[in-house]
Amino acid sequence: MPKQKSSANKLNDPGWDEVFEHAGQMYDIDPLLLKGMMYTESGADTSPENRLSAFSGSAYGPMQFIPSTAQKYAVDPFDPWDAIHGAAKYMSDNLKTYNGDVRKALLQYNGGNDPKKWNQAYADSVARYYNQMLQPQRNSRPRRQPFHRVPLRKR
């Protein structure tokens, strides 16, 4: 799939599923996890006005990249296609670092290398969005399996 910039700024527009699916396939990440991250990071706001994080003031775009991470992954944080693919690559790396532990990979994505900065509410929010999106698919065919590395539901 060639890189396509989208002018759409609503995550439920038809073209977005294709972007999430493509990024998920490239980096072996469940597309619903990526969507959950985007909802949590920016409210799924892909509009040009989404320039700065309301929380930290230093993260940008729909997947809320800080400049150093955007540079490391060669991501244009304001381009939703690029940001989604960059987030998938970053999560793939984090999952390798944490032996498939989705929660720790999410916390690293959100808080960086310092576990003292890890925000448990962030991982809970992504899990909540993920499970909400997964629920309708459980009742349809073909049946989608939960994220394959570890369950995101609280035990």
Structure write-up:
The protein has 155 residues and is an all-alpha fold. It has a single domain (15-138), classed as Lysozyme, CATH 1.10.530.10. The chain is built from 6 helices and no strands. The radius of gyration is 15 Å and the shape is globular.
List keywords for this structure.
155 residues, mainly alpha, 6 helices, 50% helix, disordered N terminus
Query: Helicity level, as a percent range?
Result: 40-55%
Beta-strand content: under 5%
Give, in order, the helices and strands: HHHHHH
Number of helices: 6
Tally of individual domains: 1
Structural Rg: 15 Å
- Write down the overall mean pLDDT: 78
Helix/strand-derived category reads mainly alpha
Secondary-structure blueprint:
Elements: H1 15-27, H2 31-42, H3 67-72, H4 80-97, H5 102-111, H6 120-138
Helix pairs in contact: 1-2, 1-4, 2-6, 4-5, 5-6
What would you say about this model in short?
The chain is mainly alpha-helical.
